[in-house]
Amino acid sequence: MRLVLLGAPGSGKGTQAELLKGELGIPHVSTGDLLRAAVKAGTPLGIEAKAVMDAGQLVSDAIVLGMLEDRLAHADATKGFILDGYPRNVAQCEALETLLARIGQPLEVAIKLDVPSELIVDRIAGRAAAQGRKDDTPETVRERLRVYAEQTEPVARHFAQIGKLKVVDGVGDLAEVSQRILGALPQSA
Ligand code: AMP
């Protein structure tokens, strides 16, 4: 199964992707995790990305695409993948389609986790306390939500236009939401 998980920051994408990874036996590919690993390792790319991430803005499309391409070239991704945090804007959508066509692994479905914004803010506050992410401060969260509405919402519209979008209610306990996602996957899952 080759799928994209969409949803606002704090909608539960990362947690659900981890659950799905166990259920489907395919890797969870999070561009946020790849970037955080590069920041932690202090690579030149990580150093370049850090300030942008801390400000809640998007890292350059070229950097993120390069990282994604490397990750999808690993053997475990030949069975499929769960993309989390990519694509984040319409240009990345087009880059993804081109990349997946080139490697012969076209996307099957995009699942959008739908969570009301009041709940999003609470969830991020909980995550800030639990994980201490630098970009979970109130100002940065506001910026990330603004960037999401401006740049990532059109991605969902794009997938809807090409008939690949499924919207799933993201409110409920983890297992419940996970079952809804599994139920929304195309039959070949
Ligand atoms: P996330 O873990 O998906 O919430 O991503 C955390 C941060 O990493 C974002 O706020 C961006 O600064 C950066 N990031 C993650 N994925 C992307 C992407 N596809 N394009 C650009 N920046 C990204």
Overview of the molecule:
With 189 residues, the chain is α/β, with parallel strands linked by helices. It folds into 2 domains: 2-27 and 80-184, Rossmann fold (3-Layer(aba) Sandwich), CATH 3.40.50; 30-73, no CATH class. It is built from 8 helices and 5 strands; from the N terminus they run βαβαααβαβααβα. A 5-stranded parallel β-sheet has the order 2-3-1-4-5, sandwiched between helices. Helix 1 crosses helix 8 (174-184). The protein is globular, with a radius of gyration of 16 Å. The protein starts with a strand and ends in a 5-residue tail after the last helix. Adenosine monophosphate is lined by residues 9, 31-32, 35, 52-53, 56-59, 64, 85-86, 88, 92, 135, 144.
